[in-house]
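Q: Could you predict the 3D structure of Serine hydrolase?
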Amino acid sequence: MKTKNYDDLFDKYIQSKKIYESIILIEKGTGETIFSKAYGKKDIDSPIIAASITKMFTAACIFILIQQGYMTLNDNLLNFYEPAYLKGLHVYKGKDYSCELKVSDLLYQTSGLADIYEEGKNSVKKQAIISDTFITFDKNIALTKEKDAHFPPNYKNNAHYADINYNILGDIIEKVTECSLERVFEKYIFSKLNMTRTYLPVSEKEYIPMVYYGDKQLYRPQFIVCSKASGGCITSARDLMIFIQAFFHGWLFDKKILDLKLYKKLQLSMFPIYYGSGYMRVKMGGFSTSFLGQGDLIGHSGSTGSFAFYYPNKELFFVGDFNQMKYPTLPIRFVMQLAMFAP
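A: Sure. Here are the predicted structure tokens for Serine hydrolase:
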């Protein structure tokens, strides 16, 4: 009966929106497959754009490097950058907080930095929909400096989702390891977990899938390549399942480093999402789920329709992709409903 519910829900989402290809995989923590279904040209091993799920890969590497003594969560950004480079990055009500930012502020999305990807009439996302765009890390920093921050670093219970936080974390990883981010990901995650279909592309010569925006197909290889630590990975449903289980089971790092009690509520436009140690938390049983379900969903979704979530209450893992940019809340609403059907 539960499998039929999953099947019916999947079909409903496919039919109600402009979804041209999709994949879903549900497993227990034991590795037993509960449900799997594909639509269009997708299958369990098809390349998909991980988009912001990449942030979990970046967070995992930060945790590994902390355990190896490369850094701490309390390290100030001045440990990695000259004051002149940081100056003007974080300005709130006329005061410059740039040199007070810490690694933890970036990881937990509590820096208060503006998000150039989503914010403004000429946001990076809007530009990327129109045409392919490559933005260097330095340009990311410069564009962020043009916008006022939303609050001081680590202010009360505030959090503001911004790709720049993870772009900086990715740059810090490269600085402390003296290796490219793609090599660090490969060494600490992909090779270790035998994720043979996952990679961080560094040029247009590598395969990068197209994504739909409504009924329009977009091919944006330069934008994917420059997204790196915040959204640049290419993966598959099978590999995503391996990773999400490894992340929360502690197969990559000591899971004690994941503070499962420390979550910050994101900006209203991200409702009902909270942010933790490199991942999202969606609380079940509230208004957004008609007061049905219990516990939390923890994991990440991506702007291209990808998702990877863990439901601890039922020890279930949900991964998949809708390959559709027009409806960014679609994967989260879908997974919430999947969790409500969980036996």
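Q: Anything worth pointing out?
A: The first strand starts at residue 22 and ends at 28.
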